[in-house]
Amino acid sequence: MSVTIKLVHLSDIHFGCENVGAVEAAIGAAHAFAPDLTIISGDITANGRRREFAAARAWLARLPQPQIATPGNHDVPQWGLAGRLVSPFRLYRDYVGRPDKSAAYLPGLTVRSLNTARGVQLRADWSEGAIELAAIRAAAAEMRVATRALKVLVCHHPLVEPEHAAVTGGVHRGAAAARILADAGVDLILTGHVHDPFAIPVSGAQGCAYAVGAGTLSLRTRETRAGFSVIEADAETIRVRSLAWTGSEFETEAVWALARRAAPLVENHDRCEMPNSVFQ
Fold first, then answer.
1. Residues 202-220: pLDDT tens digits?
2. pTM of the prediction?
3. CATH class (in words) of the domain with range 5-279
């Protein structure tokens, strides 16, 4: 019998600039979906302030458990260079958890997170992402052994840039990291940052992975309304549904039906087709 894995994917809540109605309603919507795991892919706060983290922690406690989270570039002190230099993730660690990496191992599901945010960088836009390929290879190796599980990597910045995005993740070594994950048989790379949902295929030696981004629950919307995503995966298909806030409820805005790679993995699948999508 095929087992369906259910994930809730939230991102870019930006407490301090959150959409209050959407943030509150997301709690009930997430519980109604009854996920196996709740995933938060960064930018939990707007400016990395203590009161924002306190509000974020209270909200996270009301969401379905278990959870896995990773920080974003807004989860470091936005206005304090000293804090970004010395201990950029101190408040994140105090209120949310480990910023460097976390993992979830559940029946039929293996999830790892990696931190792509930095407090400072030697480039003009310090808020863009960076990732170490050694860390990616280690995460991929951990997940490779779970041959029949849904394998998910979570980070904040997109490793593959979506077309027409209003902002760029600018991840150093991002494309190479995405290829390593696809080669290792990872199914999903879940991210945030751009505030608009997307699904992009990533070709690898072991078949097709998908880079999937969630929207935002903040007031800083771009091309789409505030919202989040829910994911259902069985042996053949990964279905990503983007939910948008109407002002009174969440409604389906877009659906991506993603063909899941076969198990056992088949070699020489060098091409991926764009996923089927339906926009409401």
1. 988 777 899 999 999 999 9
2. 0.93
3. alpha beta
